[in-house]
Hints:
This protein is 48% helix and 15% strand.
Amino acid sequence: MKLTHEHKELHRTVVKFVEDELNPHIEEWEAAGIWPAHDVLKRMGDLGLLGVNKPTEYGGMGLDYSYELMFAMALGRCHCGSLPMAIGVQTDMATPALARFGSDELRNEYLAPAIAGEQVVSIAVSEAGAGSDVASIKTTATKDGGDYVINGSKMWITNGTQSDWACMLVNTGEGKAHKNKSLVVVPLDAKGVDRQTKLDKLGMRSSDTAMIFLDNVRVPQRNLIGQEGMGFMYQMLQFQEERLFGAATAIEGLENNLDETIEYARSRKAFGQSVLDNQYVHFRLAELKTEIESLKALTMQATEDYINGRDASMLASMCKLKAGRVSREVTDACLQFWGGQGFMWENRIARAYRDSRLVSIGGGADEIMLGIICKLMGTLPSRKPTSTKPADQAA
């Protein structure tokens, strides 16, 4: 993928924002377990950073996804994993379907303020009994007059305690699990919404994560995104951008982890020499650098396919799988070379180690990615398994 001057300038702008506006506050937000989403996103919206690949008529830049890739990679310079994830929810997880399939009225009311940073948004798909198995969600939306009446609950909702609205996957009918679902914009200040349960996580500490309960929540039927019954398919399309975004944000953060580890290993003395002088150490660091570069190349190739209209499902799934596994491998190895200092809670490598564990779980677990890849390779068993297929395999 060829990077232009414009790509590099966008990257530079985002890196400057991360270094000036985010990194100085990470320790404070990590300790508090929450970030000031409205404040940060408004400043990003003022810079035009929340709608890089969104339509210009709603305040976006109208650029292709290669520019969003640069945005995501630059966010990886953040000294935690939680803020790139939380910002990515706003740009690449909760809004792609609305931008592509929403009515003009709905996009003016909800997409434009999200791009401007005037509203904070969430994606609400997962439930306590349906994480990667998207087809098994239980939340229902039944018609009553001109409204949907929504009942159920949503789990692990990033930005959930602060969001103004959520792009929510709900069951709007009976029938096959992949054809009875719809995406609906649900204002989270609506009567019957309870999102007081803030979840306590192993990592990604500075992004707030909520459990949301919905008790007879009334939402106008005009808040439906696209066609009723197409929600599962729309969500599978959103997952492609989410997975590319997640892989991209991992790259420069891992490069920073590696660079910091090299410097520490060079200065740390053991048995009369620098730790870096051990052949195993510098050979291992070379292997890790190679793994990061392979993730970068794969992510760029997947993005190139995506922007040129080719089916990027397999490569996007490979990116997601590779990002999770490389993140775990790099942060674990780096922490080892830091020794006891790496085991200290406040150490940035320790934080990266905690944060990176989510990459193999959220947005579709590694096993789901493997199932998608196997299906697209044509290597799944020809007979139907006795258990339910992972949700994404049916897409």
